[in-house]
């Protein structure tokens, strides 16, 4: 099934917050109507305090941990709220560029029509050439290819 997305959020309080609503391109068929499922909520939360090539920050990871707690209290299933931060013991959950991109890709591929995907980022950002970027832990400030668009 082909999907289209809509960005529903914006930058808020020093971190990026994006909500993506998945809506199908095809018209609903009788089979679609009979197989309706409740929409699900997904979240990828990224907090970066420890930078390899930039000044370290404080509280970004703690901000995302607090948001994770709030989301589960308002109806997000804990297994569908993914937290990437410097304190992660699993390598795949540390906020490196490759991990962030992979986890966002996996989460979006699991989402179906009618689902909500929330992506939140707390950490450094860079604005260069009329484009804003997010900086993962391994971002090199003189190399845009290390940023997240």
What's the tally of helices?
Answer: 3
Residues in helices, as a percent range: 10-25%
Number of beta strands:
8
Q: What structural class do you assign from the helix and strand content? A: alpha/beta
How far apart lie the N and C ends? 26 Å
The mean pLDDT is 82
Q: Profile the largest sheet.
A: 6 strands, mixed
Indicate the overall shape.
Answer: globular
Low-confidence stretches: 1-15, 21-34
Instruction: Provide the gyration radius in Å.
Output: 17 Å
Could you give the order of the helices and strands? EEEHEHEHEEE
Strand content: 25-35%
Q: Can you characterise this structure?
A:
- With 149 residues, the chain is α/β, with parallel strands linked by helices.
- The chain has a domain at 52-149.
- The protein is 22% helix and 30% strand.
- The protein has helices at residues 30-34, 60-73, 97-110; strands at 3-7, 11-12, 15-24, 41-47, 81-85, 116-122, 125-128, 131-134.
- Strands 1, 2, 3, 4, 5 and 6 form a six-stranded mixed β-sheet that branches. The chain has a two-stranded antiparallel sheet with strand order 7-8.
- Mean pLDDT is 82; it is low at 1-15 and 21-34.
């Amino acid at each position: 099934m082909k999907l289209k997305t809509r960005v529903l959020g914006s930058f808020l309080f020093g971190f990026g917050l994006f909500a993506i609503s998945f809506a199908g391109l095809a018209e609903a068929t009788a089979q679609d109507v009979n197989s309706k499922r409740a929409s699900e909520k997904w979240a990828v939360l990224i907090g970066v305090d420890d930078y390899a090539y930039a000044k370290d920050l404080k509280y970004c990871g703690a901000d995302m941990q607090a948001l994770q707690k709030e989301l589960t209290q308002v109806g997000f299933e804990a297994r569908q709220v993914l937290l990437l931060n410097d304190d992660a013991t699993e390598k795949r959950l540390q906020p490196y560029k490759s991990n962030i991109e992979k986890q966002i890709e996996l989460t979006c591929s699991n989402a179906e029509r009618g689902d909500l995907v929330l992506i939140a980022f707390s950490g450094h950002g860079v604005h260069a050439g009329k484009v804003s970027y997010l900086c993962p832990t391994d971002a090199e400030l003189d190399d845009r290819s290390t940023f997240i668009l």
